[in-house]
User: What shape does this take?
Amino acid sequence: MTTSPASKSAPKVGIVSLGCPKALVDSERILTRLRAEGYEISPSYDGADVVLVNTCGFLDSAKQESLDAIGEAIKENGRVIVTGCLGVEPDVIRKTHPGVLAVTGPHQYEQVVSAVHDALPPKHDPFTDLVPPEGLRLTPRHYAYLKISEGCNNRCTFCIIPSIRGDLVSRPITSVLREAEKLAVAGVKELLVISQDTSAYGVDTKYKEEMWYDRSVRTRFLDLCTELANLDVWVRLHYVYPYPHVDEVIPLMAEGKILPYLDIPFQHASPTVLKAMRRPAAQEKQLDRIRKWREECPHLALRSTFITGFPGETEADFQFMLDWLQEAQLDRVGCFKYEAVDGAPANALPGAVPEEVKQERWERFMETQKAISAERLQKKVGWTLGVLIDEVDEDGAIGRSYAEAPEIDGNVFLNGETSLKPGDLVDVTIEHADEYDLWGSVERDV
Ligand code: SF4
Assistant: This one.
């Protein structure tokens, strides 16, 4: 503790943000609100008067990580408020860490801000500290997550998010576009559209129409993409399901208006397993759809995640998934071993897969995809790609092309390019590839 709440300097709040990009956006909103009230944000434990821990409670391993992070914050600072997904289980938190000051759940912005007020009253004049119009962000200055909705109408049997976050609530399209516009004006070069189910955007509002400048826009996936395409920044779509209406945005990708990149969490390929998972769009002809998209937009990059060892998954189901993977030729793929989540309906399904079988299948899956990924990246040698720089150090610059999302996909390394800056967009000739990353050099006019 360095500053008492009654001291003259602004009260300082530290934050530890765990979990998915959606939780990161929640943290940004909380910080924006606190900053508007005159709080300062401390980058270290010892500079903070109170520490907020935004937790994840999706898997047991994430819960443990959250409990460990709370423990560390208590040890390092002592005054800790917990929020986020694990906040729906206050007993679990208080049992392990009885000293926490308050516990609030996900999206309880009012409650978490009020818990901060109780622990650390705001300075008298909230207008002395101005917040930049785009709000405060935890991502680097050149990219930002754009959250378009909360909750989910699907009921995948391995997931408890709908019970934590409720049914789908889409943000009004004008509010999303206004935020996107402010971010673009503030210098953001890449917007990452996120939600639990991006392709379902607006279903809950019956695709409500609103006026945006001189035109009417619907709260709908296609309208959102069309309008974001006017902002002259990279637009990347995450958490899209392969419904037929997704076809409508492929022309925008083919014309270079939004990035030809789709993050589709397929999770499995076997119809039996998909049915047991109750996955959205499980009945759609996914391989046909992918083929059609690639005909229209040949450079489309597809990334996905899969689960192996779901209850009832047989060797034949698993082999079906490997064969599907060979056919689909996805660019970037993550794979998780199935883990039971407290409260998820899948726990009651018969046919639990032994841990060693899960492990063995996971290894085979990763080997298969590694070869696919290496081959696909190798084909890019000789291409010229626009690369957005994320980091620069004494060895050179690290960036990403349209085919790599931050944090989850690979990188493009530019050895020796030490004069570039994060946020620069440069044309790069790709010279080398391995299973995950690319290397190249910047094209310069001579
Ligand atoms: S789509 Fe399925 S996995 Fe994703 S949040 Fe909704 S219920 Fe959970």
Observations:
- Confidence is low (pLDDT under 50) at residues 1-8, 125-129.
- The CA atoms of residues 236 and 405 lie 8 Å apart.
- The chain is about 30% helix and 20% strand.
- The first helix runs from residue 21 to 36.
